[in-house]
Amino acid sequence: MYPDSKLQFCVFDKQNGVVHTPRNLRWSVQRGSITASGEYTSPRIAGKYRIIVMANNQRAQALVYVKLPGKDIPQSIQIIAPKKNIYEKQQVQLQATAYNHQGNEVHFSPMWRCSGGGTISSSGVFSATQSGKATIQVRDANSPLSAVLELTIYANNIKRVAVSPKSTTVLLGQKMRFFALAYDDKGNEVPFKPRWYVEGQGSVKQTGEYTAGSYRGNAKVWAKDPVSGKKGYATLTVDNSGSGGSGTIEIGTALIHNSYTLRIAYQVLGINIHRTKLFAIQPSGSKQLLAEQTCDNGRNIVFEKQFPYQTIAFEIQVLDNYNRVVGTVRRTLEQLK
Fold it and tell me: What pLDDT score was predicted for residue 22?
């Protein structure tokens, strides 16, 4: 046996039948571990070890020999992720490396598979066919070892970029998160990785988080697709005064499925509102964010999300342009059933 491998032991009665009552058997091992049903896991140290089983004052034993795998036998496989983004109709050579028990690279015979937005050749050349997700699997042809890598394929046919919220007001030094969406020529939303920059005062991180400066003024927050060059922007006013918003929530329908899934539809109403969030409330009182979406006055919102089984209630929030909560509704599970 090799280290950390498993082997099932069986006990036979006088009629040469397998004993299927583990509670009558008492197993013991010198090294490694063994379950009550006789499944042995070998230790990481090479050697000869005795397996002993006792039943009704009778004793039986077996010997196992644990040896370290050879230097050329792979024990793990890793797919090396591409360093650059992958776009539609692009080809990328993927590399997979096998390691022995000492962590050194060894030769292996890779077998490639792909599901999702592309295909892959026997030599590991991935061809992206459509934007979205692709799952790559490589397996050793001579062992059960395998590795999986998930890739994001970005669209290269982007025709329009939109930034949300489109227009807003922030206070001096305030932070606000902007979101960018890209659309193809058919109006379908497609994944992309925007580059953010600011025209005017303030600064923005590549996550879309804007920080206002220390003086009043105006600014534009831009999101640009580096491949197509398409870009969109949001306008904002930086001020040191002004009133926030107000909001209310009207729940329409709420359904809870047996698979711990909530489907809820509601309408948000208010002044200077720009975002709504759905939380699951835990017995400790902590909140777990399930979903969020930009909104404006009169917007109908529909969420269908799974929630933790410990959830005791749900909370819906509406936020104004200053990211302050201006409307809240909470419902228990019993109230929604």
Answer: 57
